[in-house]
């Protein structure tokens, strides 16, 4: 005679009923929000307004409020991620956003694009940064996503160089915590690994770990981490260094997690588009400046920012595309171009510069 199973705990049944009720209310509220989004689109059309359904400053404000109002136990970042996907799905009802990014699929740049625009955006991988710029300039996509700097390896020069000839605006930024994993395929013989594929920057970010655990294994730089993951699928003696998306996309097994030398390793990406972005309340501005080749030029460039109490977050120098031994400065600072102190500083910089271009003011990104 079989033992009689004890009755289910009444408290557990009560909690499950409560969760079912909450889920129903969440679904109702999401549908109500989606209907409001559709009505917003209709109002804009009736009023003949410019059909900019995606407003970076508005979405930044919504995400900040979601994080500020978050009572827990979910983290603020997780709450923002959930709201991002809701907004992405609602926006797709009005008009899906088309986004180009530095590909192929499975790269950290794709991860940044999904973090910023959500999974309802239509994304398009491209092989080079200048192709992303061209696709946005041609109007084939609404926005592009390109890497600009890594906390370990520094600036991505190719991205900065494209701004010298492009009229696109920076519409936003994404900061992404970068975790590198060592991964293998189902045919890899773990004890016989003789080569490790990855992007050059990823290999550099994991140099000390590789020196310790695989000192005699050949390190081969390829075009992207996704390309590295793809190669490993057909080689029994190879491993790859890449992120979670590449492992999932190509069905690889993660052998060692988070092997980056610096635990705070992060990469900053820029969102490029054709629109100027109004102030969101917590913004940054990027500037490109050419100075005359004379003593004290750099000092003259920086003084206006000090005088108007503006916090500089980055200053980079690149060789100008015309003229030997002349340079272009790329400057990021806190504030929006429409605020009084920033406008005054830009006027002073313009007076001493041989050329100046505001690349954009945009909502400040968070990790």
From TrEMBL:
Keywords: Amino-acid biosynthesis, Aromatic amino acid biosynthesis, Cytoplasm, Isomerase, Lyase, Multifunctional enzyme, Phenylalanine biosynthesis. It is found in: Cytoplasm. Catalyzes the Claisen rearrangement of chorismate to prephenate and the decarboxylation/dehydration of prephenate to phenylpyruvate. One of its GO terms (cellular component) is cytoplasm. Residues 286-363 form the ACT domain. This is Bifunctional chorismate mutase/prephenate dehydratase. GO terms for biological process: chorismate metabolic process; L-phenylalanine biosynthetic process. Its EC number is 4.2.1.51, 5.4.99.5. It catalyses: prephenate + H(+) = 3-phenylpyruvate + CO2 + H2O; chorismate = prephenate. Pathway: Metabolic intermediate biosynthesis; prephenate biosynthesis; prephenate from chorismate: step 1/1; Amino-acid biosynthesis; L-phenylalanine biosynthesis; phenylpyruvate from prephenate: step 1/1.
